[in-house]
């Protein structure tokens, strides 16, 4: 991708705030990143019940980020994401590196309010399907709302995340600081939600099933994901009416975000 104006070419599905960029990095860039990630001592990994993670850029605190510089091998890629997406108002300063074994995933969730409302997820290793499910506050909407063709809106959908791809989702409705424009956008957003006519990505929870086999039934970017060179990396099994992807190895994801409130040292909190 060359410039941010092109970002709209990468919209997948029905939401105008969800972008999937195949082949964002090359095979050798992927290998270098994996090399750097696995050079970290075991103590850098934090083990959770269903995955392990490294936290880079500092500690996200309720009052902001107690910042620590990203290592140069990582800021090289985050600067590129910022430059090419044009969606971050300042440098990305926080990266979560998640490692999933083939049977591991992440519960449906929404990212916390500490972050600027744009997230870029770089995928390495095994392909996975990320599921987006409407937040429960949209349920009443979902039952009643139909688009012009009579089809139901606000349905769950999924995105196939191939290795070396970049997924970006953002929410236009909130701004980091609640200035006049921010307030105006919030009011408009409230009205829109009320009428159920505009739905943003943040009205959805995102998650990854903890299964070795992922169904492609609800995937909105099958062509974009599988027509590229990355498709050689996916073991896609087609039976009569279902398609699945087999997670044959581990997956690493880099969740790149910006925390606007930054503290250089603990005593200034
Ligand atoms: O691993 C992923 O692709 C998603 C990670 C995620 O949603 C998060 O770190 O908040
Ligand atoms: Fe998340």
TrEMBL record:
Q: Which InterPro entries match?
A: AlkB-like, AlkB-like_sf, ALKBH6, Oxoglu/Fe-dep_dioxygenase_dom
**Cell inner membrane among keywords:** no
> An example Gene Ontology cellular component term from the record?
nucleus
Q: Which GO terms describe its molecular function?
A: dioxygenase activity; kinase activity; metal ion binding
Q: What range(s) does the Fe2OG dioxygenase domain occupy?
A: 91-260
Keywords of the record: Dioxygenase, Iron, Kinase, Metal-binding, Nucleus, Oxidoreductase, Transferase
- Its protein name is Inactive serine/threonine-protein kinase
Query: What's the source species for this entry?
Result: Hibiscus syriacus
Organism taxonomic ancestry = Eukaryota, Viridiplantae, Streptophyta, Embryophyta, Tracheophyta
